[in-house]
Amino acid sequence: MAEVVVVADQDAAGALVAGAIVSLIRSKPDAVLGLATGSTPLATYRALAARIASDGLDVRGVRGFALDEYVGLPAGHPESYRAVITREVVEPLGLTPELVRVPNGDPAGIEHAGADYEAAITTAGGIDLQILGIGRTGHIGFNEPGSSLASLTRVKTLTEPTRVDNARFFDSPDEVPMHCITQGIGTILRARHLVLLAFGEAKAHAVAAAVEGPVSANQPGSAIQLHPHTTVIVDESAASQL
Ligand code: GLP
User: Fold this and answer.
1) Interface TM-score (ipTM) > 0.85
2) Which CATH number covers residue 101?
C-alpha cells in the first residue's frame, strides 16, 4: 500500500519532495533522479532549486533520467522534453547537462533508442528516486491504458485524450506528435523510491484508481501498488475520491 500524504498545495508538496531529494543527495552525491515532465512537478523543481541554492549543495555529480520524450519533434523544439528538462530542471538546479539523459525521440535510429536507454539506466546503477505525475487517463510516463505492467522503454502511440491535454503546450492540436518514447511500467517499477504527485479535481479519479483500484494494465498508475516504496503526494482535490 502506498503511503498517501495530503498537502495544502503544490508548494507544500514541493517543499516535502525537495527535502527528500536533498537528503538523498547528501548521502549519495551521484544520486540518480527520475524526472517527470508535465506541469505537475514544476513547483517541486522550483522548491528543489531554492533548497540547493540556500543549502549550497554540490549537485554537479547528480545524474538524471527523464521518463519520456515525443518522437519526431524537430531538434531544439521548445516543447520537446529534452528542452523542457533543460529549462525546468538542469539549468535552475545547476545539474551537469551531460549527466541528464532524455530518451532519444529522433526517428532515425528509434528502433535502438529504447534498449539504449534501458542500458544507460542499468549502467548508472538504477534510479534512486523517481518523480511521477499521472495523466487523466491514468498514464504514468506515457504508458497509456493497455500498457504491459512489465514493459520497458519503447515507442508508443499517444491516445487522443493525452494529445488533447498536451495541446496547450503547442500552437495547434495538430502539432502534438502522434508517438512518444517512454520508460515502461517495468522500468518505472525498478526505481528504488517512487514519488507520485497529483493536484486538482481532474486527477481525482486517476489517483483513486492508482492507489485503491485493482492493479490493471487499464490503469497504468495502479502499478505503483506493486512497488514496496511509493509515496503519493496529493492536494485535497486530487484526494477527493480516496
Ligand atoms: C504528460 C507526461 C507525463 C505527465 C502527465 C501529466 O503527458 N508525459 O509524464 O505525468 O502527462 O501531465 P500534467 O502534469 O501536465 O498534468
Assistant:
1) yes
2) 3.40.50.1360
Q: How many domains are contained in the chain?
A: 1
Interval 122-162: pLDDT, tens: 999 999 999 999 999 999 999 999 999 999 999 999 999 99
184 inside domain: yes
138 lines ligand 1 (CB under 6 A): no
- The C-alpha cell of 167 is what? 495541446
Hey, whose CA ends up nearest to atom 10 of ligand 1? 133
- From the CA of 193, how far away is ligand 1's center (Å)? 19
Note the pTM of the prediction, 2 decimals: 0.97
Whether residue 131 lies inside any domain: the answer is yes
Task: Check 68, 69, 118, 165 and give the catalytic one.
Answer: 68
- Active-site residue, selected from the candidate residues 118, 128, 144, 165: 144
